[in-house]
């Protein structure tokens, strides 16, 4: 399903400009959307689901114009959405909650609805806990119910906002695999601030910074952006003040730092191969989005 | 199944599983039952023990409970609409391909129906007890009729207020105000210095229908010499009783529409 976001802006009450003239095209497959907290990712997700409307600009999904009520309704019929702030009714069981959402998504026929709910509970590994009330669920279990509800209508467009928050490492890996499988025949938008989630599931990504689109391209190109800017150094002194420290590990009574900086931070710093996270930090530095760069 | 029916069904189920609606309903009924028993043993409430008119008995028995019931309704329904946003469920439901007004109507009627069940059951027990005690099976019919004509409109109005109020103020404050409102509207006397809706066509205890349709002697309806707001106290007739019912139901509908509009605005 083709997505076309054309010069979209959104300002909230209190004059907070959440999105500023953002244009983005997604031809299909999976697209990672990275950005710091407050970068505008959730606003973009909510615009794509029809929950809010842009102040200006146009969003087209498939053949549907999201500025028209009929267009929003048509998109919502084929949409799966996992919001960042996921809530559920604590007095319902997971099975009842999924049944309720399935009814609202138009799965009217009881036997097929029950079958679908059962399949999804299996898929998210909650079949045994499906008849327990949601009030007793852990954060990770609730997240898995959230994933299940997003898939109820076998959506053509899947919008997932911070989907792995609260999942343990095993669940996170399972979910990434599932997302990659789902993207084989759907459009998936994965919004996250966890760079590793994007690195493991996406080949294409977009980066938002302070409401603006600051990158659109491949994961490998963004990684390459940090080439020659990633350094490893060992120090027992203070934290390096040049660039951005992206990792710090204890090392023989001192600390080994991984630093992203345009220039060699110290004479003993050695260049190392960049990762996507380094590329993301280098991009943020270019756009003056990191604290280190702002202070410099 | 439509969005309306699905929402009504699940809201009814969730509300019925809420212990608060059973406890909150049982408390005023229990309190009144104990007081009535004590009074009867002291020789009071002669009419209650001697009256064999099923219609009168049922409407007057219900008259004692309407004011506290309205408060119970207002309090237990107060969190129903705002909780979707508080729980974070609203975004999930709002992206389903459904009509928001249909979902709100389903939520409203589903929660109101669930809230009506505990008092309906208690009232049924009262009707059965009277029917057996006085050998008057018609008490069951009169019980159902008085419940439908007096309690249900009251519940719909309380439910509507409970959908609107907590969007304008914190829920605990709304709960306090709803108690105050019903004390003011139901307990103030007609001849008190404070203008009161008591005995008017806007009486929140539906005195006109109680008096006209069921002959209640406890209900006050009609002009009161020297009282303020007498223009709202026409002679009690079938027409004015129907008008009173229409006003309460119309007011409830208008408040639900306002709640829907406000909910749509805050949802953005």
The CATH class designation of the largest domain in chain A is Alpha Beta
Percent of residues of chain A in beta strands? 25-35%
Biggest sheet statistics of chain B:
none
Count of DSSP-assigned helices of chain B: 11
The biggest beta sheet of chain A is recorded as: 6 strands, mixed
Report the C-alpha radius of gyration of chain B, rounded.
19 Å
Structural class of chain B: mainly alpha
Overall number of strands of chain A: 14
Count of DSSP strands of chain B: 0
Encode the helix/strand succession of chain B as letters: HHHHHHHHHHH
- Total of helices of chain A: 10
Q: How confident is the prediction overall: mean pLDDT of chain B?
A: 86
> Could you give the distance between the termini of chain B?
27 Å
Relative helix content of chain A: 25-40%
Order of helices and strands of chain A: EEEHEEHEHHHEHEHEEHEEEEHH
CATH topology of the largest domain in chain A: Rossmann fold
Short description:
The complex is a heterodimer of chains A (296) and B (268). Chain A is of the alpha/beta class and 296 residues long. Chain A is built from 10 helices and 14 strands.
């Amino acid at each position: 399903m083709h997505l076309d976001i054309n010069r979209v802006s959104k300002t909230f009450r209190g004059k907070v400009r959440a999105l500023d003239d953002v244009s983005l095209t997604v031809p299909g497959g999976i697209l990672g959307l990275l950005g710091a907290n407050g970068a505008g990712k959730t606003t973009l997700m909510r615009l794509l689901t029809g929950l809010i409307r842009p102040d200006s600009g146009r969003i087209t999904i498939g053949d549907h114009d999201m500025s028209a009520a009929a267009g929003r309704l048509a998109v919502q019929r084929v949409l799966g959405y996992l919001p960042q702030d996921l809530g559920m009714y604590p007095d319902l069981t997971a099975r009842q909650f999924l049944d309720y959402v399935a009814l609202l998504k138009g799965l009217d026929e009881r036997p097929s609805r029950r079958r679908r709910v059962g399949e999804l509970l299996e898929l998210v590994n909650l079949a045994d806990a499906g008849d327990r009330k949601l009030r007793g669920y852990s954060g990770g279990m609730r997240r898995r119910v959230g994933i299940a509800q997003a898939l109820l209508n076998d959506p053509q467009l899947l919008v997932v906002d911070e989907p792995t928050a609260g999942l343990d490492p095993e669940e996170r890996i399972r979910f990434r695999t599932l997302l990659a499988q789902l993207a084989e025949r759907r459009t998936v938008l994965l919004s996250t601030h966890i760079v590793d989630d994007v690195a493991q599931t996406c080949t294409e990504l977009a980066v938002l910074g302070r409401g603006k689109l600051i990158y659109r391209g491949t994961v490998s190109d963004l990684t390459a952006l940090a080439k020659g800017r990633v350094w490893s150094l060992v120090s027992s002194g203070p934290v390096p003040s040049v660039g951005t420290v992206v990792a710090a590990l204890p090392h023989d009574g001192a600390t080994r730092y991984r630093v992203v900086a345009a220039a060699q931070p110290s004479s003993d710093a050695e260049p190392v191969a960049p990762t996507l996270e380094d590329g993301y930090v280098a991009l943020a530095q270019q756009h003056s989005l990191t604290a280190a760069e702002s202070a410099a | 199944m439509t969005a309306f029916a699905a929402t009504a069904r699940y809201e009814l189920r969730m509300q019925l599983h809420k212990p608060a609606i059973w406890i909150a309903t049982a408390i005023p009924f229990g309190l009144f039952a104990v007081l009535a028993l004590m009074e009867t043993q002291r020789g009071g409430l002669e009419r209650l023990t001697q009256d064999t008119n099923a219609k009168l008995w049922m409407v007057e028995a219900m008259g004692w409970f309407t004011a506290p019931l309205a408060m119970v309704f207002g309090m237990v329904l107060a969190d129903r609409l705002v909780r979707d946003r508080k729980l974070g469920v609203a975004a999930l439901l709002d992206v389903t391909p459904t009509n928001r007004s249909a979902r709100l109507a389903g939520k409203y009627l589903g929660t109101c129906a669930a809230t009506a069940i505990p008092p309906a059951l208690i009232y049924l027990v009262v009707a059965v007890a009277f029917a057996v005690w006085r050998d008057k099976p018609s008490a069951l019919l009169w019980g159902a009729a008085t419940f439908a004509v007096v309690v249900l409109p009251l519940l719909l109005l309380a439910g509507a207020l409970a959908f609107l109020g907590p969007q304008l103020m914190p829920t605990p404050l709304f709960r306090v105000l709803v108690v105050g409102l019903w004390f003011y509207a139901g307990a103030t006397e007609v001849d008190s210095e404070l203008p009161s809706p008591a005995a008017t066509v806007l009486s929140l205890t539906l005195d006109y229908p109680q008096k006209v349709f069921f002959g209640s002697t406890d209900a006050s309806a009609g002009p009161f010499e020297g009282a303020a707001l007498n223009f709202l106290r026409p002679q009690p007739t079938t027409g004015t009783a129907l008008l009173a019912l229409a006003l309460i139901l119309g007011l409830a509908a208008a408040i639900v529409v306002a709640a829907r509009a406000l909910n749509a605005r805050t949802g953005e």
